[in-house]
Amino acid sequence: MRNTSVIIPTLVRIKPGALDRLGVYCSRGQFKRVVLLFNKELDQTLIERVNKALGNEGIEILGHVPVVASSFEQAQEVFQTLPQATQAIIGIGGGKALDVAKYVAFLTRLPYIAVPTALSNDGFCSPQSSLDFKGKRRSFAAAMPYGVVVDTEVCLHAPRILWLAGIGDSVAKITSIYDWKLSFKINGTQVDDFAAILSDATVFQLMAKPDRDLEGIKLLAAALMLNGVAMEISGSSRPASGSEHLISHALDLINPKPRLHGLQVGVATYMISQIQGRGAERIAQLFDVTGFWDAIKADPFIKKDWISAFKTAPSIKTDFYTILSEKDHTEDLVRIMETDPRLKDVFIEAL
Fold first, then answer.
1. Looking at the structure, do residues 200 and 312 belong to the same domain, yes or no?
2. Which residues fall within 8 angstroms of residue 209, CB to CB, at 6 or more apart?
3. Which residues does 254 contact at the CB level (< 8 Å), separation at least 6?
4. DSSP character at residue 126
5. 3-state DSSP percent of the chain in helix, strand and coil, to 5
6. Which partner for 147 in 11, 57, 326, 334 could form a disulfide, CB atoms 3.0-4.6 Å apart?
């Protein structure tokens, strides 16, 4: 069902040097007292740039909160100790800090500004936070950001593997939209046409320029952001998540140290697209030109883990109909894994 009170970012800046103008953007929103949440391991020079940018505009930072883990417990602790004078919450860094920051913003009903320093998934602008709760990863309702500030130069200098993970998470929209429409056909699940078109279009926009330069980073950032907006519009994760995400979630349960979400999702998307009979060659070509396959082969996946994930995936969300729900596709996926030339050396036997 469509979200009748759609919240989308008011402030969007995706350009080089955006980090150094963060104070200007906050001033325009009349945020004079803020709390900053950041990944504990974040490069200190980036924190210093944020401090300077805010200080130049006379904005008071009421707290610097290093985020150690994306846990419900840390989010609760930050919520309980947040200064009453806080006017906005800023999350800077990767998924951990952003997930905790936007959940705290949701609890406090304060404006939230997302400042991702890498583009590995669409979580920086989504209406959910992925947090550890009692030893398990769960999704919690969260605040859509008031502002999204992406310094393309900062993201360009993030590790290349994070950019590739973002590519992997982006292409998932090809298979997720198919699954969404399949669920409508079988179960009558409502499809929001605008959200579906918006999410689908971002993939092909990205495919038009899959380059790791400032313009390519801008396109990836916009694509990931608009995927989050599509989820907010539809009131569902359907525009961005389908059977490929179920496989990735299953892998997370199987492995004590899961791999990057976007890498798992990207490989799963390619395989699922062959089951669906849609988009496989486009995905393969994108992965060819970006070097996605080479990066996976440098640190390949364990074959038995994926086979277990294929079997487990349909039970991850029992009310979430996808192509994996229609029948057991494990044999089909194993056949693709073992015979597709592009997947050679992507999977290895257990060490």
1. yes
2. 215, 216, 219
3. 305, 308, 309, 312
4. S
5. 55, 15, 30
6. 11
- What is residue 310's predicted lDDT score, i.e. its pLDDT? 97
Residue 4 lies in a domain: no
Q: Give bridge partners of residue 148 from the DSSP assignment.
A: 12, 114
Are 267 and 142 in the same domain?
Answer: no
Among 156, 171, 198, the domain boundary falls at: 156
Please give the model's pTM, rounded to 2 decimal places.
Answer: 0.93
pLDDT for the residue numbered 138: 81
Looking at the structure, do residues 169 and 282 belong to the same domain, yes or no?
yes
- CATH code at 264? 1.20.1090.10
Residue 60: C-alpha distances to residues 46, 110, 275 (Å): 17, 16, 54
Of 156, 173, 199, the position where a domain reaches its end is 156
Angle between helices 193-208 and 214-234 (to 10 degrees): 170
Give me the pLDDT at residue 205, please: 84
Shared-domain flag, residues 94 and 47: yes
Structural domain span for residue 51: 11-156
Q: How far apart are CA 204 and CA 166, in angstroms?
A: 14
Residue 254 lies in a domain: yes
Residue ranges, the chain, pLDDT below 70: 1-4, 351
Rounded Cα–Cα distance for residues 22 and 148 (Å): 10
The reply to whether 1 falls in a domain is no
Tell which residue, 140, 230, 121, 249, has the closest CA to residue 180: 230
Give the tens place of pLDDT for each residue, 158-167: 999 999 999 9
pLDDT tens column, 50-75 = 999 999 999 999 999 999 888 899 99
The C-alpha R_g of the chain, in whole angstroms, comes to 20
Cα gap 142→140, rounded to integer Å = 6
